[in-house]
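Agenda item 2: DAU complex prediction
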Amino acid sequence: MRWLVTGGAGFIGSNFVRLVLKERPEIDLLNFDALTYAGNLDNLADVRDLPRYKFQRGRIQDRAAVELALADGADVIVNFAAESHVDRSIVDSAPFIDTNVLGTQVLLDAARRAKVGRFLHVSTDEVYGSLGKEGYFTETTPISPNSPYSASKAASDLLVHAAVHTFGDAAVITRCSNNYGPYQFPEKLLPLMISNALEGKPLPVYGDGQQIRDWIHVEDHCRAILAAAERGRPGQVYNIGGHAERANLDVVREILRQLGQPDSLIKFVKDRPGHDRRYAIDSRKIETELGWTRKWNFEDGLADTIRWYQEHTKWWQRIKDGTYQAFYDQWYGGR
Ligand code: NAD
Ligand code: DAU
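Presented output:
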């Protein structure tokens, strides 16, 4: 079998590529990635020489490059490629529309022309907007995105829905909550806080820090995507969650506690504009229909992740010393 994975050099994509190569020996995998600031081939250093793995650099909105990637056909496409950081979408939403919306359209059209058997679109719980104190997002919760990032992801989901409805494409959408784990770019909450704490730098907490996210280990997310790609029903949406709702401030305090650093490193900064208050996922559909279950609980997963960042300082220091610093100064400098 041939699978095309887009965005496989990023955080979740690289964890997924490693999982597939390890557990599905019958699959040849082409990783198609633009290598933006978030794409890093070091993430796949341990598998890059496997004969079943190939890499092609390209942008999903580039029709010719996508057609080249599909020249030998594909049984399955898994689409991770996206601009993924909410704060960057507030600074400049243009790349989000370009990649997340236009890119998904180009990929869907190319997949149809190449008669790809299955299209798995990796989406997010943020398309549902924000919850109050009670309740959960289900697959029938109306889409109501609040940030340029989530609006672009919602638009891509609607394009996938239209492709199923109009052309009968065998596409499936997954919507997951906040991931954490190895190889996460240190702009996101957990790796930013862990690496800042390791460096003894301030930990910037937005607003009152009482926003709630539902944390899931990246490995559990990847196994859910694999199940949905292999066995999900075309046209269906599957929510994926960690069943681990935590307030940001509690997570940050726990990181400091585990690292033996003082709470005084916490610095409350100006809130993210339009900041969603609470996400929580009802994932019973994928559990009952596809038999997916979580392996990680948040406490063990967080301890394991902290250990990974302690053992891979070179990996994140190289990123933090590079072009990421310019965004950090621009975004946090004025807060
Ligand atoms: P990431 O930013 O770490 O990685 C994105 C990858 O996509 C990078 O390798 C980048 O080079 C590549 N890419 C970007 N633009 C591209 C383009 N135009 N063409 C080809 N490749 C391109 O992102 P992530 O956190 O791994 O997220 C992956 C996917 O999962 C995204 O679609 C995101 O919306 C979704 N998602 C993320 C989370 C999360 O918590 N991180 C949760 C739910 C869903
Ligand atoms: O819910 C799924 C989404 O989770 C994915 O679709 C996105 O790609 C992913 O980036 C993530 O979005 P969030 O905005 O929830 O993640 P982030 O790590 O940026 O922030 C998590 C929470 O922490 C959020 O409430 C904002 C807060 N935060 C974040 C940063 C970077 C801070 O308080 N300080 C910070 O410096």
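Discussion summary: The mean pLDDT is 97.
Owner for follow-up: CH.
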